TrEMBL record:
Higher taxonomy: Eukaryota, Fungi, Fungi incertae sedis, Chytridiomycota, Chytridiomycota incertae sedis
Sorted UniProt keywords: Cytoplasm
Transmembrane segments: none
Protein name: PH domain-containing protein
Entry-linked Pfam families: CLU, eIF3_p135, TPR_12
GO biological process terms, semicolon-separated: intracellular distribution of mitochondria
Composition-biased stretches (Polar residues): 496-518
UniProt organism field: Rhizoclosmatium globosum
GO annotation, cellular component aspect: cytoplasm
Length: 1262
């Protein structure tokens, strides 16, 4: 069965087991709910059925108030019911009639009331005792997959919810073996099976356990109810039927209608926004999947067609006609241009225009949603295949059933106020500046977007469509860096042309440079959203203003924005790259990372020039070469295909593959033709596209396998996965190794907003704004949402196919589970990630996935002697121990290193993550020499890759020093730590970095016996932490505790003697008391009674909590620009490259139980510092604790020695309360002051305080 906790899209479903426990008395019958099939553990819920009631709930066919994702409602045999007990409602549901009857027959005899009762359980008189542990509130993300029990496939469950459902409602589903009847004896059955926690969205797992196992198998997941994964379909799930002939989709409802209905939704809460986003991506993914099949057929059959295709298959007629158009099932597909007659410049214009249109549609949709504007756009995807671009979009019926309501280019113009106002709101959200557009001699229109935008009204469906959006982003006027410098060696074969895709007439640009603005180069919406000023869409055209003055002002603002992008924004992005704040893994992620920061790909050359890290330069150069080769490759391949068409060739596949293999060898080989190709075509192309000169020496120094992988990715070509390609030969890519071509696709990204989301409080202040998604989500919920978005956008048939981006997301989930100490889940996701990669043994993604697998396997190791360790596997019902040894982990590690070696070379930082995690495994097991050996491999890479002046190198030096300390290598440790300290100081690093090193140097000096030096560094660390974080920060508290212990170490035992204290000892005692008092106050005020516990990076690394030094394999809070990303300010786990991240290390465990020890230390030190002879005599007398000593005399008054008599319990408790309320030091000062005033009760309190400090027990009166 499944239990539901929380509500909403992240409602948690966990596998539970129900036991109906009977006894001799029917009044003592209970239903016990267990987390596992292990009845030896306490049940989570105990429901006594005495006076409980059951309500049969009729199934509503429409408008059922259920959680998204619930299945079975309205189906035959589905019978939900509710059991009321002790003012609680427990929701049960079975998916078949037989299962329902079984449950009802089992429960009915023990229920007093089997009639329908009030839906309000408060009105029912419950007297039975119910023990219920209330589940966590809020968004819950995890779900446990249901194991197969008894040889039958398990079924998923659903919950019937009424409007008054409580958060702790219990949902139960029938599953063979989940209902166990115990007759009171020992013959009750218990099924042992492992439970596995998975991420869930909309009440269904994002990936079931079976899907994780089948990942990368290229199977097509079925959506039928009898499928192996038993997925519950959400109400928004797209019910698509497939034809058996070509595998395409037959729509009962047109693609456009489905998409526009979802786009027009008005969600009223953040959960609904996320559901809308997922629904959009689901339609987009299914549409793209269907479009790809048609596009492949269009391209593959292009050479067989005549100049014009037949009506119904191709389109030269009709309003939506385009070269080579295809109309099928509400979908229109056509080539980006007429490739038969288009010139190279016209092809580039078409490529730029279609890419810009898709990008602007995406930005427009997000802005319209954020502004609450009801205006729709086209469902559009782009497919690049074999040199052709196919544009696919859903048929909106433009010009057939729509009429233009906003069009400034026609005569007479159309400018309805409603359309103009909606466009203005969208433009404002996009940070675009309104500008005047002069229409004729006497008409001016104030437009927020480009004047080429059109709005069409569909009066039948009450929709407004915005089209021609490709020019709404302002032109980026960027002068090439080489335009101001001469380059004697450049000889580009292509002229620096600037294709004009704007229909507006360019203005006479009066810049000092004669280079006109390139109309195809536009600023990205991510950058515009973050830029401080608004910019006009139509800059550098006559439509940018009604007069010359307005146009010049708008143009100058655009120039300033472009200059800011080049001179400030991009250098900051490069700085983040150099500081490893951004860690792109491979070619497919470089563009994603740069676009997220609002940087266009054309600035790769600038990034390569500005970066100071060699491997960053090489990565950017590889990307530029691969993209430049793609331009040459697709142009030549397209011309080859057109040639085949002109000569009437029919069998072209083999010839095409031979030509493709030769082209790849032309770049990667060492023949004379390859060198000539580089000099005459590739080098000029790189310069033309990226304004970057790459010489022959640098080109041949690039790591060939990495370049090979990038070329395959960008060109849409797949070669065999192997690591034996000989790039030193003239023909490294033979035809026999080429597998196939694959289409590269681009689609809208839904509603993943670019801005930081407003909080619930701000929503109340802004009632007209729509609710924002991803608002206050935990890391688990964010991952569930992100993973769901990814899989829904892929299409229903592509979910289990090999995909490096899928592998990367799965690796991210594995890293999260490692960070939260769930190694079994981390291992499952890491294995699935390896299976999902396109190259299990050669891809870079497989290397980082294996790093996570190493960490997960290492987390399950516990010492058991020799070289073998035990892997604890906790199952359902029993615990078993499986032998596991280091050889398995080392085998995984070596496979990962092999993949790194192939992709980037052994000296690349990508391998550091593997070495670091292997070091952490040995560190966890106490094998410090082995840990240091693997760590030093990473340290050598850091020095070689980053230099000795990099913060990452300092972090590795710091950890090397810590490991050396554990090996008692004090001199080596101090050398490493002092070197790290010098680097941090030279870089003006954050204070916390420097404080961390000071603390470790103090420990090293203490180990060597240099107490004064240790105390000096500890004091520096303490002051730095307090300055940076405040006195009540956990790390400041730890620094105080460390300092106090070092202060007292040289004088151990002195406080308990009668020796005379020297000034140095007194000063040390006072400083120690001050430090202990801060620790005391922190623990006293700690919330929840738990003292200091790990909580993110600010306290301690959860994965390093089993060792007492910093493993540094911890989460890192990434710095980011304001409003950069929805998740930019959250802690992210470094997957790529170095896993050693400064500055945080684990803190010692500080539970509240140590308050007693702190009190004893403070009291002992305070009493040792007492200087008044009278007070010292009183303390001496009380310590003797014997009635024969005589009474205590205070100014002529005599008091019985309080230590000679048992203490009053109430007084003792009062003393403890007072010490906790203020502090032991202040309380003792108060006692001594009262003794001066002859207060007799002060003697009793002092005696209790002394007894608490110096004895293990305190004698109390009976």
């Amino acid at each position: 069965m499944l239990k539901k906790a929380g509500s909403g899209v992240f409602a948690q479903w966990k596998l539970k087991f129900l036991v109906l426990s009977t006894s001799f008395s029917p009044h003592q019958t209970t239903v016990k709910v267990f987390d596992q099939c292990d009845q030896s553990k306490p049940p989570k819920y105990v429901i006594e059925l005495k006076d409980a009631a059951m309500e049969m709930v009729p199934v509503k066919r429409e408008g059922v108030a259920v959680a998204a994702g619930a299945a079975g409602f309205g189906r035959k045999g589905f019978v939900p019911f509710v059991v009321y007990a002790k003012q609680r409602k427990f929701y049960f549901a079975a998916q078949t009639k037989s299962d329902s009857d079984e449950w009802l027959a089992a429960l009915a005899p023990f229920l007093n009331n089997r009639q329908n009762i009030s839906k309000n359980p408060r009105g029912f008189n419950h007297q039975s005792h119910v023990q219920i542990q209330k589940p966590n509130q809020g968004f819950i993300h995890t779900s446990q997959s249901v194991p197969n029990v008894g040889g039958r496939k398990s079924r998923t469950a659903s919950v019937y919810q009424n409007d008054d459902v409580e958060d702790d409602a219990v949902s139960v589903v029938s599953s063979v073996g989940s209902l166990m009847i115990d007759g009171g004896g020992e013959d009750g059955k218990s099924y042992s099976s492992s439970t596995f926690e998975t991420l869930s969205f909309c009440s269904e797992p994002v990936l079931t356990q079976q899907e994780l196992l089948a990942m990368g198998s290229n199977l097509v997941p079925s959506v039928s109810r009898d499928d192996f994964n038993r997925r519950r379909k959400a109400p928004m799930h797209i019910q698509l039927e497939r034809t058996s002939s070509v595998g395409t989709y037959i729509n009962v409802e047109k693609w456009n209608d489905r998409y526009q209905k979802i786009l027009s939704q008005k969600p009223n809460n953040p959960e609904a926004v996320m559901q809308k986003d997922i629904q959009l991506l689901e339609v987009i993914g299914a549409f793209e999947e269907a479009a790809v099949q048609h596009a492949i057929r269009m391209v593959d059959e292009h050479h067989l067609q005549g100049p014009l295709m037949k009506k119904g298959q191709t389109g030269s007629e009709g309003p939506n006609s385009a070269p080579g158009a295809m109309f099928v099932d509400g979908m229109i597909l056509h080539f980006a241009c007429d490739y038969d007659v288009a010139t190279q410049e016209e092809v580039e214009v078409a490529m730029c225009r279609t890419s810009s249109e898709l990008r602007c549609i995406d930005a427009f949709n997000r802005a319209a949603h954020d502004a609450g504007v009801d205006i729709n756009t086209a469902l559009m995807v782009l497919i690049d295949y074999k040199g052709f671009r196919v544009v696919a979009y859903a048929d909106m019926g433009i010009d057939e059933r729509t009429t233009p309501t906003y069009d400034l280019k026609i005569n007479p113009l159309k400018c309805e106020e409603s359309a103009l106002s909606r466009l203005s709101l969208v433009g404002k959200e996009l940070n675009l500046k309104p500008h005047g557009v002069q229409i004729g001699d006497d008409r001016r229109v104030n437009a927020h977007l480009s004047w080429t935008v059109q709005v069409h009204n569909d009066s039948e469906l009450h929709r407004k469509y915005a089209v021609n959006l490709f020019e709404i982003m302002p032109i980026d006027y960027s002068l090439p860096m080489s335009s101001t410098t001469s380059s004697p060696n450049r000889s580009p074969s292509r002229t620096q042309t600037h294709p004009t895709v704007s229909s507006g007439v360019p203005t006479p640009f009066t810049s000092a440079s004669s280079i006109p603005p390139n109309k195809s180069q536009r600023l990205r919406p991510e950058f515009l959203k973050l830029y401080s000023s608004t910019i006009s869409s139509d800059v550098f055209t006559n439509a940018s203003g009604c007069g010359r003055k307005e146009r010049d002002l708008n143009d100058s603002e655009a120039v300033r924005a472009s200059r800011y992008l080049r001179e400030q924004w991009i250098p900051q992005v490069v700085k983040n790259l150099d500081e490893l704040e951004m860690r792109p893994l491979e070619s497919g992620q470089i563009g994603v990372e740069l676009h997220k920061w609002g940087v266009n790909i054309r600035y790769l050359g600038m990034i390569a020039q500005l970066s100071h890290i060699p491997y960053i330069k090489d990565m950017m150069c590889i990307e530029m070469v691969a993209r430049s080769f793609k331009s040459l490759f697709v142009t030549s391949l397209r011309q080859l295909m057109i040639h085949f068409r002109s000569v009437g060739a029919t069998q072209i596949e083999e010839e095409t593959k031979n030509w493709t293999a030769n082209m790849f060898s032309m770049v990667l080989g060492t023949s004379d033709k390859a060198k000539k190709f580089f000099d005459e075509r590739l080098k000029p192309e790189v310069y033309y596209k990226y304004d970057y000169e790459i010489d022959e020496r640098h080109f041949y120094a690039l790591h060939r396998p990495a370049l090979f992988a990038a070329m395959q990715f960008h060109c849409g070509v797949i070669f065999e996965e192997n690591s034996d390609y000989n790039f030193a030969s003239p023909n490294p890519c033979p035809r026999s190794r080429l597998v196939s071509f694959f289409p590269r696709r681009k689609h809208p990204t839904g509603l993943k907003h670019l801005s930081t989301k407003i909080s619930g409080e701000q929503q109340q202040q802004q009632p007209n704004q729509p609710p924002q998604a991803i608002c206050q989500l935990s890391e688990d919920e964010r991952l569930a949402y992100t993973l769901t978005r990814h899989f829904r956008s892929m299409g229903p048939k592509s979910k289990l196919q090999q995909n490096n981006m899928t592998a990367f997301y799965l690796t991210t989930v594995a890293a999260h589970y490692n960070a939260t100490e769930r190694p079994e889940e981390a291992k499952r996701y890491a294995i699935a990630a390896i299976s999902a990669t396109t190259g299990k043994n050669t891809s870079a993604v497989s290397a980082i996935a294996r790093a996570q697998l190493v960490e997960a396997m290492g987390a399950q190791l516990v010492p058991s002697g020799s070289d073998r360790y035990n892997l604890n596997m906790s199952g359902c019902g029993s615990k078993e121990t499986v032998n596991y040894d280091f050889n398995g982990i080392l085998a995984v590690y070596r496979l990962g290193v092999s993949a790194v070696k192939w992709n980037w070379g052994l000296s690349h930082p990508l391998g550091m993550g593997l070495h670091d995690r292997m070091s952490a495994v040995y560190l966890r097991c106490g094998r410090y020499a082995d840990a240091l050996e693997f760590h030093n491999i990473s340290l050598d890479i850091a020095i070689a890759s980053f230099g000795k002046g990099h913060v990452c190198t300092a972090a590795y030096l710091t950890k090397a020093g810590i490991l050396s300390l554990y090996l008692q290598q004090t001199d080596e440790a101090l050398s490493r730590l002092n070197e790290a300290l010098q680097i941090y100081r030279s870089l003006n690093a954050p204070t916390t970095h420097v404080a961390q090193v000071h603390s470790h140097i103090a420990s090293a000096l203490d180990l060597r016996g240099d107490s004064d030096g240790a105390i000096s560094h500890a004091q520096k660390a303490r002051k730095m932490w307090e300055t940076a974080r405040g006195q009540m920060d956990p790390r400041s508290v730890a620094a105080n505790l460390h300092t106090a212990n070092l202060l007292l170490k040289p004088f151990e035992g002195v406080a308990n003697t009668t020796n005379v204290l020297t000034p140095n000892i007194k000063a040390a005692y006072r400083d120690a008391i001050n430090c202990f008092e801060k620790v005391f106050r922190f623990l006293k005020n700690a919330n929840g009674g738990g003292g200091v516990k790990g909580s993110g990076a600010s306290i301690m690394s959860s994965r390093a909590s089993t060792v007492s030094i910093d493993s540094y394999v911890s989460a890192k809070t990434s710095r980011s620009h304001k409003n950069m990303d929805s998740g930019a300010n959250t802690a992210v786990i470094p997957l790529v490259g170095p896993a050693v991240v400064p500055p945080f290390s684990p803190l010692p465990q500080l539970p509240k139980s140590i308050l007693h020890k702190l009190t004893k230390k403070i009291v002992t030190l305070k009493l040792a510092l007492v200087e008044s002879p009278r007070h010292r005599e009183v303390i001496r007398t009380i310590r003797m604790g014997d009635a024969s000593v005589g009474p205590v005399k205070l100014r002529g008054s005599e008091f019985a020695n309080p230590a000679a008599l048992p203490f009053d319990p109430e007084l003792a408790r009062e003393v403890v309360r007072k010490m906790a309320a203020i502090s032991p030091s202040i309380y003792l000062d108060d006692i001594l002051a009262r003794i001066e005033d002859d207060d007799g009760t002060a003697l009793d309190e002092l005696a209790i305080a002394i007894s608490l400090a110096e004895n293990d027990t305190v004698g109390l009166a009976a």
